[in-house]
Every structure is written in C-alpha cells, then in structure tokens.
## 1
Amino acid sequence: MLVKDIMTKNVVTASPNDTVLDALKLVKVNKIRHLPIVEGETLVGIVSDRDLRSVSPSVLASMDIDLLEKTLVKDIMIKDVITITPDESVEDAARLLYKHKIGCLPVIQDNKLVGILTDGDILYCFVEKYHIDVDVEGLC
C-alpha cells in the first residue's frame, strides 16, 4: 500500500507569519496534533500541539496572554522537516516515523505539500489490513 492511499489530502496549514495564538486555534478547532507551515504551497516548517503548548503560558502563571499574539509561528516551528512522497510505501513511512520518533510525515510532491500522514493513519491501516476486531464500546 502506498502513502497516497491513506494520507489526508486536505491539510490544515498555517503561515510562518501567523501568531502562535492563531496556530493554537487551528489545532484546537480542527482537532489535529500537527500543523504544517507553508509559504504558498511550499512546506517551510511544522509545529505540533506540544510545541504550541510549550510556549503557551500556564493558567497558573502570571505571564501575559498577549505574548501569544506577538510570537510568530516562524519563531517556534521546526524547520528541518522529515517528509515523504505519495508513491512511497506505508511500510517506509512507518520506518521513518519509528526511526525519528515523530508523529507525522508531510507528503511532498514537486516541492508542494499534497498531504499529511500521521501515526494514527498507519495504525488505522494496520487494523484494517489485518482485520483486527476493535471493540470501540469497550475502550471507554
């Protein structure tokens, strides 16, 4: 199976000049953990929900919330992003995620962001491929 078969194609993205507050809102509203940062269609970085939380003031701290409106995504984003192409195998994607201890791979074709593949996508693929019975009701 190939990356293009299981990747998310409509990727939520942010701009390097967006604020951390904007990025936090995108992550929360869209219920995502990874936010690719693009200029046009070109990937220039990525931030995770952890990255965003690490620069967010604690509710117990006296730090001014206005800082989130002043800090730009480009100041906290990871710039050296590990990526994959749509025609690579899901197995290769899983190896990259495991080797680098990361949760997602932006999918790049012709220097453009065309999708994103997460560890959850690969787990879902594994469950489907091996017909693993999942009792969702019994999980919670």
## 2
Amino acid sequence: MSTVPGVGSVRLRPAALTLMAASAVTCLFFFASAACSDDKPSAAELSEVEDIASRTFQSSPAEADFFFAHVTDNLLKTVLFSSREDCMANAVECIGEPSPVLEMKATAIDGKKAHTTVVAPFGTFVLRLIRENGMWKVDAMEATSDDLPPGVKSVDLHLVDFAFDFKAADIPSSGTFGFHVKNDGHQAHEVVVVKLPPGGSVEDALSQMGDDEEPAGLKLFIQPGQTVDMAFQSALAPGRYALVCSFPDVTGPGADPHFSKGMLAEFDVK
C-alpha cells in the first residue's frame, strides 16, 4: 500500500465505485430481500403477527372461518390432534372454548417465519408462524421454560411414549423442587401434577382433572425433542402426588389418552 497521501485512495476509487454500483443494482433488483436492508421489522409488521396469533389463540367456533384460514395442517395435527377435514366437520368440539390471552411478548420476524410468546391463564407458550400466500399462519405451539429460583433442586423427568421416567428418590422431602423435563417421545406430551387425597389412587387423580380444582403443576404442549424447566408456584405440601398425561395418542385409531397406555406415575413428598 502506498504511503503517499491520496495515492492509495485514488487507486482504490474505481474498484470501490464499481462495487458500490453493483451492490446498488443488486438491491434494487432484489428489493424484497432482507439481505439488501438492515431495517428491522416495523411496529406495524410485528403488530400484524401478534394480532393473527392472538385472534387465532382466542378463536371460538363462531370464528371458525378466521381460525382455519390462519392455521396450518401441522398446527391442527400437533396441538388439536386432528386433521383439517375432521376439525372443520366438528369445529365446536375441535376449536372449543376461547382461551384468553393475558400478554403477548418477544415477537420477532425472520423473513417468512415469525414467533411470539403468549401468556395465558394455563401457561405460557411460543407460537410459531409462517407466511403463506401473503398471509401469516400459526404453524406450531410449544411450551416455554420456567425460571427455577436459586437453590431449588432440579429433578430430571423424561417423557416417553408412554411413560414418565424419573427417580422418585430424587424428590426432596422439603417439596421445594422443579422438574427438568425432556420429551424423548415422538408425540407432544403434557405434565399434570395432581395431589392425591389421603389413601387416594391414581384413578382419583384422573377424576379430579375434570373438576375446577387447579392441579399442583401443569406444563402443556412439550413437543418431541423439547427440553423445558417446570417450576411450581410454591413448595409442594407433604403427601402423595400423581403425574398424568391425557393427550390423545395420534398414532392409534381410537386416539386413546396417553394415561390409558401407562403414562401415569406417583411420587411422595414427605
């Protein structure tokens, strides 16, 4: 490189101008490409994603047209455990009651993919969207990980088709712990923790799941291969507890609940 003032810059200028011109032409030609722009998604674009996700999440059977227009077949299969044809034929049961949204956050767009976090009364979830034919559609829904407070023991809990795999001896007598959950199965699973009445059985736990009484712990839509931490709102009181997964078996003709295939377990807090 020349040390004479101005010489190096003069020699480089034609090449630099050529590169700049080529870059400008490329960006004009591919103006829709994110590679030509450092702009972040606009507030309006992020708001559109959140609006689609929120309305879809809160849809009732009366809004079936909007719902089916904004969900993919993958979402129907992995969250509602149904084909599009079957779900549309019985929208009242398939869509069910609307689920309120308490908060939406951490929304991001990456090309034709987007995601947002939905906080609902029964859990916090990540909704993943894809853009098809100029329209955002909800494609997947998965559990989020809880923050385990410092000093809280983490107990490994593996989900398989169809069982809970953990060491009961790892449950601390204090009841202050959380689960480190890994779905090693091929289907979505849930972890429902129900306190059994004195002398009660797992069958009692199953009957309680339909009542208004809230479970001791709940983590829904843990997708295959996903790992999440599950925290409890407070230390579990002494007693016997049941772990239950009631999601349907999507591979079986009867869509039997997972607990009917053995996805039940018990543990004690002493």
## 3
Amino acid sequence: MRSKHLSAGGKYTRENGVYASNYVYGANGDARIGRLYSPLDQETLSAVTGLRGELATGPVSHRINLAANGIWQEKRNAFENTAAGSRGFGNLYEGQPVAEPPATSVSGDIHDPDTTAKVQNRSLAVSDTLGLLDDRVLLTLGVRRQSIGADAWSAASGARTSNYQESITTPAYGLVIKPTEYLSLYANRVESLQQGPTAPAAALNNGEMFAPYRSKQTEVGAKLDWGTFGGSLSLFRIEQPQGVLGGDGYYRVDAEQRNRGVELSLFGEPLDGLRLLSGATWTKAELSGTTGGRDDGNQAV
C-alpha cells in the first residue's frame, strides 16, 4: 500500500503591545516600573509533503515514511522604551496604579517597522517501522536532516546583528511492545535542531537572535486501550539550552534547562457519541551549566 500527501498554509500576525516591567531593587520589594511599546508584524508560510508505503520481508513488516517540510518566517518590529531614570515607583508586594512612564527612547519606526528577522527551517526525514511477532513488537528507526537559516537586524540602526546557517543530521528511534491486546509499553528518543531564542523586548540587546541548538527528548510509558475507555502514563526528559536575562540587562544563552516530568491521561466514552478526556502533568525544570555554577539546580521559569 502506498499513499502521499501535500499541504501548505500561511499566517499573518499584527500585534501592538504595551507592556510594563518591574525592576526590583530593594529586599522589601521596592521597584521601578518601566514601559515598553512594541508593534510587531509577522508573516509565516509553511509546507509539508510526504510518501508512505508498506511492504514485508519474510515475517517482518515495514512501514516506510518519507517526509519533507519547510517554514519561512519574517518579522518586522520596533520598540519604544522608558529609560531607567524616568521609570515610575512601585512595590512588588503592594500593587497600586502607577502613571504610565514616558517614552524616552525609540528603536525603529513604530508606525512602519522595518524587517528585524528572517528564519528558514527545512527538514527531510525518513523512517522505517519494523513489525515483529505479528506486529506485537514495533521498532522504529529514523534519521532527519535539518537546516535552519536565521538573520536578524537591529531595529534601531538597521545593521545586521545575527547571521546563522546551521545543518544537522539527527537520529530518532522508538520501541513499542504489546504484551496483550489492550496494553502497549513504549520508549522513544528524538533529537532535533531548534531555532535559537531571541532576546526579549525588556533586554538591552532586544531582538538579538541566538544560534540554533540541539534539543533531546526521551520518553518511556504505558498505554491501556479498551476501546471505549483507557489511559496512558509516561515519564519524560527534555534537554535544551536556556536563555537568561542578566543583572546587567543583557540576555544570554549560557545554561542548560532539563525538564523531567510525569504525564497521565485518561479517556472514556460513557455514552454513545460522548467522549471525555482528562490529563495531568507534573514537571520539574532545573538549570545546569550556568556561569560559575551560580544557578545550577535552580528552578527554570
């Protein structure tokens, strides 16, 4: 059996955001209140295509998948900020209305923002799911080639601030064992190339785009399915770089975030045509590899 698919789409976003930022300077919660106005235009195009096929080599079945996709994105952005000396006064623990601080600096044309970032993300993947023992054991082996190109420009000067072109080949593998008709035990590991973070508007280097990075995800779990009701329980671990806004106001990627968690989901169909879903996730996110080990073990937010 063989099948193919092709789809494409696009999105346009227009955002006019006015934001407040607290800069706490006292142990009692005293803070200065800043203002940021940031108009944003964003255009995104995406396309995906693929082929699927099935065949058998003796007692082993094969489900082969070939897929290609791409995402193209362009951002236009500008900023209007409040300098430190013009920020309002407030307290972290005693919230009260604060007069809107004045705009003291402008980066770019807030009425007609220029292009500040372009990103192209392309990938080609192939996988084979081998079925053994009448498909009661399924082993998936795959490989993916990814390329990410990213360019960024200063909203203030228009100068190029970042230019990255990264490519990587990553594996993907998974195992499913079905000891009974209703129970499946599984494990998988996936690695991928992710677009690097962008310094937030509150950072002095706002808009700076960082290099793409490799993320890793491992998951093990069990799934019960009796048709009209069932559930699943899984344990997962995700590793990826973490950006931090430093005390000097600059945003840097100098740490690793490790997310470990447990996920439980349940489903049921108590009445014909009525299907209920519920779930819960517990996650613990920790920092590691921070500068000088200062924040190692701290909870990531």
## 4
Amino acid sequence: MPEQILIDLNSTNCKTYGNQYASNYNYHYSSNGYHPLLAFDRLTGNCIKAELRSGNVYTSRQVTRFLGPILKKYVNKYKFVFRFVRADSSFATLELYNFIEDNNTFYTIRLKAYKTLYTKASEITDIMIRECKDNIYDYKVLY
C-alpha cells in the first residue's frame, strides 16, 4: 500500500499537420493540433490517464469528468492513504476545488498572481516574513 498518492494534472499541445480529424487552432500554443488532458502519478512518473481532445478546447474543460474515475478508484482502494492533486492555474475552477474536497483529497492549484491577490495576501505575507526571518529551516502555516 502506498504511503501517499500524488496526482499531477496537465495538458499539452500535440501539433498536427494536414487535415487531421478534430485538429483545431490553439491560440495559447499558436498552432493547429490536439490539446490532450493528462494525469500522472507523480511518485512513479507513470501516466495514469490521457485523453485526446480538440486543439481549441480550454484546459479545464470537463476536468472533473476526467479526474473522477481516477480519484474515486484511489478513494475506494486506499481510503486512509494521503491523497493529493496538483495542477497549474488553468485548472483553477470552483467545480474542481469542490470535487476534490468532496473526495477528501488535498490539492494545490497555482493561481496567477495579480494585484488583488497580492493585496489580500499582504497581511499574511508580512506576518510570515516577520516570523520566519533569518530562519531557513522552520516553516509556518497560517489559517
């Protein structure tokens, strides 16, 4: 039985040439192709699941449907094992947050930094700097 399960969600560009079925232009990658959705077991590096999608599909589209069977399998099989999902900012949706939380799993999803976020975090940032100053070994978590 694993001590922990760490799932990384990602997407990528799969460039195509000619008239491939379902190939479309992706503005983020500035090319025609597919935009597959991927899930990796971060501890082994194995690809757990991959889904080929049209190139013009946004990253987080139907991500809960994609992740659902994976997470439910791990929840049922390893009920008391620490489960964690990681993803980048393109997966930052309330639907995904709620789904992961409903399955008693932890997650880290990167957010794009912008002025409002910095403003809201400034009070906590100041506390963290003050309490961890000159100490590179300890850490502190504020709730």
